Amino acid sequence: MQFARVKPRASAEVAFTIDGRPARARVGDTLMTAMLLNAPALRRFEFGEGARAGFCLMGACQDCFVAFVDGSRVRACTTLVSEGMAVLTGASDG
Amino acid sequence: MAEPRVVVVGAGPAGMRACAALAEAGLRPVLVDEAARPGGRIYQQPPDGAGRPARELYGLEAAKATRIHALAPALAGRIDHRAETLAWNCFADALDLLGPGGPSRVEFDALVLATGATDLALPFPGWTLPGVYALGGAQIALKAQGCAIGRRVAFLGAGPLLPLVACQYLEAGVAVAAVLDATPFLAKLRGLPRMLSAPATLAKGMLYVARLRRAGVPMFFDVRRPRVEGRGRVERLRFEAGGVEREVACDALGASFGLRSETQLADLAGCRFEFDPRTRQHVPARDAAGRSSRRHVYVAGDGAGIGGADAAELAGERAALALLEDLGLSFDANRAAWLEGSLARLDVFRRGLEAAYPFPEHMVRDLDDATMLCRCEGIAAGALREAAIAKDAGEVNRAKAFTRVGMGRCQGRMCGRAAAEVLAMARGEALGQAGRLRAQPPVKPIPMLPGLLS
Amino acid sequence: MSAPVFDVAIIGGGTAGCAAALALRQRGMSVVLLEKGACGAMASGTNFGGVRRQGRDFREMPLATRSRALWDRLPAVVGEDCEFRATGHIKLARDEAEMAELERYAREARDHGLELSVVGGNAVRALYPWLGPKVAGASLCADDGQANPRLVAPAYARAARAAGAEIREFAKVESARWTGSLFEVDAGPASARARRLVNVAGLWGGEVAGWFGEGVPIRPLCPNMVVTEPLPYFIDRSIGVCGGNVYARQVERGNVIFGGGRGWGDAQAGLSRPRADVARDAMARALEILPQLRDARIIRTWTGFDGEMPDEIPVIGPSLSTPGLVHAFGFSGHGFQLGPAMGEILAELVADGRTPSPVEPFSIGRFASAPPAPRLT
């Protein structure tokens, strides 16, 4: 996981999945935070090698779009994580 | 005369002060803002549920942040606040909006654009690796999400945000691997005389540096040739300082080199732009009150030119007073004069900051052809340089058409400045010659049929 | 005044003008081209990018057939392929009446050397499973395709320059006249004199013709275009529909470009803007034929200035008032594919006084009794 939680949250837990694997975050976490507390990256870069894990965290760079299993996509840094979200990062290994 | 329809875009310090002044005058402005809660970036409020005190979130700026946030309940019922709403187009005296309720359109008789700024990114090898974030991004992670971007974080920058964010991470208990200033130490001394015009602000900046030193955080100045390395993620940062090649182990890097104004709506509103050699940016032409070249369109805050949060508050209120005056409504001329005087004084400090943190041209000069410049489309700096010469593309929109730089989802926010700098340097021309990326609607990506899909 | 006299002056730096400059240089003539902005910034650079014979007025077919061969030769002529891909073009029918229209056109097209293959609903879904359910059939022109309009005219301009043509950009022509022995073209410091004059001034071609007493009615046409973010590649044909209210293509990088309807333009001010309401209508129609776009995000909309003639076919051919003047403008939204051939045809008209391509139907004379074009600039 890339991010580290340094200010614990008192809010309720949120259960979601990343590439089918269970993951946990807290109410008030953005999807980006939630994913990066559980995984090293958000998506594969579509025009070359490597993964992307966001950059600006403010909805400007658009590098943090992640896909749900139903094909829809959201900007992870401006979307709050919610119960049952099923995201795909395209990572080849688990 | 029917009640004039006034719209303010942006609920940061500039937009909030503008709304307060307009509401005070009996108008009911529409306030459009992308976030759920006001505050903009610098005073960004965490999503509900954080419960952290203002002192912890905003440090020495806590009082200012709290005052801005307090404007919202004070104005409740007196303004039409469209939260979580993106203004994605401006045309024919109307804004196209996209909010939680779907798409809408709001017409205006007068418009205040307080659209703020983003980090100024410059490319360097490895900057797209997972674990590299903009300095502002690193700050947002901590402030709005209570998270660090890594466990052993290095910071690289060319502005006052560098020591501030590093210090915030230090105080949060995160291991700070190094603080790397891409500008020379001597530049700080050059900026000192003007920065003394705002001694409290200067003292804060020096305090951050002192805390970092006391904690033994390695600090370097005039850092050159930064390179991030690692297998699929950040593992170390290499750089040159003092003529010596160095290396810092880290698992994350916060790196950006100042701020850049968000001017897309001003462009779409038809405002004339000027190149400001001081800040190396094209910004909407404006008078001292914030009037743009377009009648009844006003620009205030960092979205009109980087000036900081204090200046944004003053500029927002000043623009509102100009708006009232231009609509033929009564306004406090003495207050307007005082605001302009205060802005002029703050500008002295701002120029000191600019001298203390000059634009790191070496980042452009040392940028090798293979390094990715447009991170959305994956275009290397070399492709841009080639187009600049072989295809005579010295202007950014032309270069964009030929190379795809700026054609990605970020619409040139992260690469546009670097592209202009690279083009100008490749052709030996002044930076202003490279022009600026033309705004095209939507100013941010929008879904295909917003709100109409079941 | 000791300024040189060129063999040919060309007003307009779109694809046709730049291609003509190259072709004339290759015939050994001295050429100056004057373009008010940057070459290719107007209609040549702001169109959909369809390289298409299907659907044309049959009077254009010989020109389009001639031009199609030149698209394959772009790398040899201008040094790059401008992203031309012969993906084929399918024109969709959304009901039985439109199917009949496709079949009618296909029958007549054969007589003009255009082979089309028309398939009905079941076959179309088997061939193109990504098409929406409302598609009743399609007509395929297998060797039509698409290219990147931003690249073509600039590539011709570079090739023309390399061949020795003088290309003057940001050189707006204010007026021109025939003195009895020369054409004088007023463009401030970029002014020029020439023995022959080519009017390829696009939307402003009607005004230029007016300077020579043969103004024609031409109106702005601003195609409203929408571009999505990059998406996984799935649309392997360029797409149009009967009636033309939506058209779409996907570039290799993955962006889907689609259009339909008109944007806003003030030709006098030189300002054009895409319209949000028109874009939304086009989005709705695009989603009907391409339902997979539902999760896509729009990242760009744009428009530009093309010139439209009342009868939707261009003006091409010699001036009827002034010997030595040749016109080619008003391509009414479908000039992109014709650009390369127009270069050759214009060179033939200028140098030889005639062209083997049948351009009589496009004569400016068909507007002889029409009111002159309003001044646009």
What does this structure look like?
The complex is a heterotrimer of chains A (94), B (454) and C (377). Chain A has 94 residues and is mainly beta. Helix content of chain A is 6%, strand content 30%. Chain A has a single domain, classed as Roll (Ubiquitin-like (UB roll)), CATH 3.10.20.740. Chain A has one helix at 31-36, and strands at 4-5, 13-18, 21-26, 43-44, 51-52, 65-68, 73-75, 86-88. The mean pLDDT of chain A is 95. Helix content of chain B is 35%, strand content 22%. Chain B has helices at residues 13-24, 54-58, 62-75, 135-145, 161-171, 185-195, 199-214, 264-268, 309-326, 333-356, 362-365, 381-390, 396-403, 416-427; strands spanning 6-9, 30-32, 80-82, 86-91, 94-99, 102-107, 110-113, 117-119, 132-133, 147-148, 152-157, 175-181, 219-220, 224-229, 236-241, 244-249, 252-256, 259-261, 273-276, 281-284, 297-299, 372-374, 379-380, 446-447. In chain B, the strands form seven sheets. In chain B, strands 3-2-1-7-21 form a five-stranded parallel β-sheet, with helices on one face. In chain B, strands 9-17-11-12-13 form a five-stranded parallel β-sheet. In chain B, strands 4-5-6 form a three-stranded antiparallel β-sheet. In chain B, a hairpin with a 4-residue loop joins strand 19 and strand 20. In chain B, helix 1 (13-24) runs parallel beside helix 9 (309-326), helix 5 (161-171) packs across helix 7 and helix 6 packs antiparallel against helix 10 (333-356). Chain C is α+β, with helices and mostly antiparallel strands and 377 residues long. Helix content of chain C is 26%, strand content 26%. Chain C has helices spanning 15-26, 61-72, 74-78, 96-110, 121-127, 149-162, 205-210, 276-289, 339-352; strands at residues 5-11, 31-34, 50-51, 89-93, 117-120, 137-141, 145-146, 166-168, 175-178, 183-186, 192-199, 219-221, 223-230, 238-241, 247-250, 255-262, 264-266, 271-273, 297-302, 306-308, 315-318, 325-329. In chain C, a hairpin with a 4-residue loop joins strand 9 and strand 10. The longest helix of chain C has 15 residues, at 96-110. Chain C starts with a strand and ends in a 25-residue tail after the last helix. The mean pLDDT of chain C is 96. Chains A and B meet through strand 1 and strand 5 of A and strand 9, helix 4 and strand 10 of B. Strand 24 of chain B pairs antiparallel with strand 19 (297-302) of chain C.
